[in-house]
Amino acid sequence: MKKFLVLCGMFLCISGGAALAAPSEGGMYYNDGLDYYAKGEYTKAIDSFKEAVAKDPTLVDGYYNLGSLFEYLKSYQTAIIYYTKVTQLDPNDMETVLKLAELYNRTGSYEKAMFYVNKIPAESELAQRAAQLKTVIQSSAEKAEAKKIASATSTAKEANKTVINRFSGPTGVAMDSKGNLYVASYSDNSIYKVTPNGQTQLYSKSPMINGPIGLAVDSQDNLYVANYNKNNILKINKAGQIVIFMNRITNPYYLLIKGNNMYISEQGNNTVIKYRLY
Predict the structure, then answer these.
(1) I need a labelling partner for 11 at 20 to 30 A (CA). Which of 75, 138, 256, 278 fits?
(2) Cα–Cα distance measured from residue 67 to residue 86, given in angstroms and rounded to the nearest whole number
(3) What CATH class has 5-157?
(4) What's the rounded mean pLDDT across residues 53-79?
(5) What is the CATH number of domain 170-276?
(6) Predicted confidence (pLDDT) per residue in 89-112, tens digit
């Protein structure tokens, strides 16, 4: 018996053969399926082929035609079920084995796709197509694995992220020896403090603060503020008292304290100032 339905590009076509002569009850439904298919009534054709294999579970071509129709209709998982039945009844049908490899690759089941493509023997006339498909499967599997790793990494990063919302134009940040985080809020000329347990509070707001950007904390937990719009550096001690620490710094931006030295990026003069604290 010959398979009747095959895919030709995007369309189904008849590859030859005739209806079953003097058919059994299953064969009658099978022939009805061919007739419905010829009329383009695919739903009725599917129903008839299903009846055919129900009446005759050994009717290989019935399963194959069901697989072809469902593949054409892009119901790939269902097509896989019927093609698998074909290979169970006829393990030497390498054409259907190759179809299973193609469909498993298309649905992202790369291990199963590789399992079936490796069943094509080297002496088969399908060996070249199988070799090409194997390369495609390997490439698809590698891309899927890379995407999976990237997604897992992104998820892990999101899980580790905590967002603090209270600031207006946050700029510089610095931390003291007790783990308190200080945030410069440029737009409202304020300094906020975030405690280790996550509580946020206003730490300093004064007419002296105007355009705070860079922050730094020294070994004694004094906080320094690059006061951009006032062209100076402010010092806020642990008691919250504010004094002008350095004047005539043109648009100070970032602050860094390393050892006994403070480094100030002076944006207005395109310079970096090094100042010895102690």
Answers:
(1) 138
(2) 9
(3) mainly alpha
(4) 94
(5) 2.130.10.10
(6) 999 999 999 999 999 999 999 999
